[in-house]
Amino acid sequence: MTPKWRKSPPELIALFEEVMPGPPAVPRKMFGYPAAFVNGKLFMSLFQEQMLVRLPEELRTKLMADGWKRFEPMPGRPMGEYLAVPEQILGRDKELRQWVAKALTYGTSLKPKATSKTNAKPKTSAKKPAPKKK
């Protein structure tokens, strides 16, 4: 049975919009939640009552030792490079913006996502049909 996901509180959505960086970051929705992408890669998002950021491994390891939690949309199913921003940091504008900037910097360092060819129109053949055999 799929768990029922809750919408993010309006205050958290407003905070996300407030700290959302400008270009090259692109705001979008992912699973109905506000999200931020750079080069086609997610670097920051909301999920229910959590804000998450994508950070490099060495920084994630240090932060988890300091009490940050790996982001798990479902218990036991962590999303590899994402950490949930601790609630106390959500209340500190300057510090939160620094973590968002680090997530953007990391996202920018990743190889851009290849564009999908699924939306491309199929090529039509200009060949004439083969003549029928008699």
Describe the structure concisely.
With 134 residues, the protein is of the alpha+beta class.
Defining key terms:
134 residues, alpha+beta, Yope Regulator, Chain: A, six-stranded antiparallel β-sheet, 4 helices, 30% helix
Class from secondary-structure proportions: alpha+beta
| Side-by-side strand order of the widest sheet | 1-2-3-4-6-5
Residue windows where pLDDT falls under 50 for at least 5 positions: none
H/E series: HEEEEHEEHH
Q: What Rg is obtained from the alpha carbons, in whole angstroms?
A: 21 Å
Report the β-strand fraction as a percent range: 15-25%
* CATH-defined architecture: 2-Layer Sandwich
Number of domains: 1
Arithmetic mean pLDDT: 87
Number of strands: 6
Task: State the end-to-end CA separation.
Answer: 62 Å
Q: What is the general shape? A: globular
Explained architecture:
The chain has 134 residues and is an alpha+beta fold. It has a single domain (10-109), classed as Yope Regulator, Chain: A (2-Layer Sandwich), CATH 3.30.1460. Helix content is 30%, strand content 21%. A six-stranded antiparallel β-sheet has the order 1-2-3-4-6-5. The longest helix is centred in the C-terminal third of the chain and has 17 residues, at 93-109. The relative contact order is 0.16.
Layout of helices and strands:
Layout: H1 10-19, E1 26-30, E2 33-38, E3 41-47, E4 50-54, H2 57-65, E5 69-70, E6 82-84, H3 87-90, H4 93-109
Antiparallel strand pairs: 1-2, 2-3, 3-4, 4-6, 5-6
